[in-house]
Amino acid sequence: METTTSSSSAQIINKDQLFTHWLGHRKVTRRTLEAFPEKELFEFSIGGMRTFAQLMKEMLAMDSATARGLATSTWEALDEEKAELTTKADLLASWDQSTEKIQEYWKDITMEEFQKQIKAFGQYDGTGYSILFYIIDNEIHHRGQGFVYLRALGITPPNFWEQY
Asked: Would you give the DSSP letter of residue 9?
């Protein structure tokens, strides 16, 4: 099957719908974080995977920084360590602050920025939309790991379809 691209202005979804979709995933991820017991959040893993706290720190390093990069064309190096986030309350507060930053930057992201070729964080080549899709997909992937951890701990994860 041959694929073609077009510069047509036809859209499947608009910018606001994409934003609502992203924020919906962030709500489910926040509820996943809330479901974790404090100790297991920082210590529990399966098969050598990182703890959910470590996965959350990675997401926090990338999420609002991506919105900022798309809005300002300024991309800084990633800080996935986030050593200052040592409690569940810290992670939740940081998640909420990050969501607020995303909301602030979103209004300044132009439609053209989504089509522009960029080098996110000084290392990832792609278009604005491909980088954003990666960020959303990465969150979903890590949340899935969190779901596995929660089930292994005997905790039912939040319903992933309850995003809005």
From this structure: -
